[in-house]
Amino acid sequence: MAVVAEPARVGVREVERVSRRDGAMCRVDPGQFVCRALAAELADEWVLYCRARDLRGPDRPARAVRSFAEFADAWLAGRGLDPQLVRLTGGPADLTEIIYEWEQDLRRVHPYPSKRGYELASNLLALIEQRSVREQDLPHKLAARAQAPPLFGKPAEPPPLEEFSQAERLALRNAARHDIRAVERRLSAGRALLETGCDPRQGDWENVANLVWAVYRGLLETTVLRAHLPTSPGHWPTEIRQVAGDAGASWAPQALLAGLAAMVFPCELDLQPFRVLLLLAMDECTPEELLDLAVDDVEFTDGGVRLAQTKRRAGRIRRRLHTDTALGHGGDGAAFEGEGRWDVPGLLCRLFAVTDPVRHAYPDVVDWLWVAVEPSGTGRARVSGRRAEFVLAGRRLTDWITRQHRPDGNPLEITTPHDARRLRKTAKIGRVVALGGTVADLAGDDHHVEVFRRHYAHGTTAHVLAGRAVTTAQQKVFASLTRPVFADEEAVADLTEPEVTAALGLEGETAEAMRDGQLDMGLVNCRDPYASPHTPTGSVCHVAPAMCMLCRNAVVFPSHLPRLVLLAEHIEQIRNRLTPPQWQALWGRQAAALAQLFDECAASMPDARRAAQEGQARLDLPLGMRTEYDR
Prior knowledge:
The chain has 631 residues and is mainly α. The chain has 5 domains: 13-147, no CATH class; 166-262, no CATH class; 269-380, no CATH class; 421-475, no CATH class; 483-628, no CATH class. It contains 25 helices and 10 strands.
């Protein structure tokens, strides 16, 4: 067997991530694997793949390379083959068989409904296919496998996220406002304490104000605290123990450091309420656009604030003006002092006030809006400023929500998942409620119509509103088609007058025939028995009087009301003999039409009911109507 010389050097391949952390690199080191040559070839294809497709997130194909190379090492070692001789172009092993075994292992490690196995397999096959198309030097079997899909299909997409309900939106809003007030009070007290402190190296290390002064200037570490404070936290002054909380002796310095920093700096969890309120207030801003805001992207004007929103996925920058609602109600012009304003300009001004100490103390983050401090390290922990990302455990939206309580002290109950995208959907649905209109109008310039239809128009609120709109329109149409016309005593007396006949929608000859009783169908009058909506045109109506109350041709005189009272009583008697579904299907609409008619002519109903009780009217129903409909 020919021995292929090992490469003299295998370097680390790197691709820069396009993310909020400028300069963050994704790396693949072929030297970590025994099959270094194969891993290097795949890593080279990964670099070319990311460049050719301008990938903003190179991590997924990188994970595929690492996963396959690690599996290939174990697979080859288990069969006594030399991993260093394996190449894409050939070697002692069939790569197609290794890929097949790797996919089977992925299916076991990442069972349904996980997408990880499918993503890893499809990304590796894409890299191999790229090499096959470009160089055309791969074995035919491997090239054919690269063009085929993974062994297992892509899992179904999860159901779209639902928006928060109105009650949940109000609960989140109130909790966020409460937290912002608490943070502002805490930082205001900390600033007052800071002004009274001095350098503890020249003063007292057991004074809280001096320790706040030191942490604000980056002089404090846990090693410094251990060196200048008593070893046992029990011997610390009461004020310092209160800052440290109930942490044990081993963790007391870290807890004290975090507590001191919280007196003058916000942490990521303190910024979550600002994020919640801004996403609820700005339906045209995504969570990513909000988090990517730099200080230069925020421009305060006389009437509000203008934001330069960068949407990385779409590759565009949009500038939005958000007006100050307080100025529109007689404001005095002091729009951006950050006191008590809950609109977008007021919230951003208050956010600047909260985060300014971080930018002042840590120049590395001076350009960014969402900045916070967090203690870092363990044995030698210190406070550092950094951009907020809200992704680490303890700092996510769900962590903030689970800490909230209702006014009665019970935990705040918010449906899961606690995803910031649901806040945006809630704001978008609020826009739907306020504006209405077509999908194209509601999508605006934020989305394509299909994107809005698929991700936002599916919301329960939008569906309910759409259903109500459709139902209302249908009811109006049905009412115009089926509603009888009522003519009071005055109208009956002047029935042949042109104004009356026009108001009732009658012709002169029809009015005269109706006045003479020629069009009485046994229950009410009929405009035209040969133009019934329930029978073919030109044929005499054969469903009278069963459907008269659901016919647009029906005209009711006051003299008909006693018969209609008897019909209503007859329908109520039938209710006792039929099942509810049967009664509703056969008589429910007639009963509703009668009730509506009785409400409209309430002044005439007492006389009508009295006439019905005294037997002055008869209800003559056809035999078929009594048997067919009543059984």
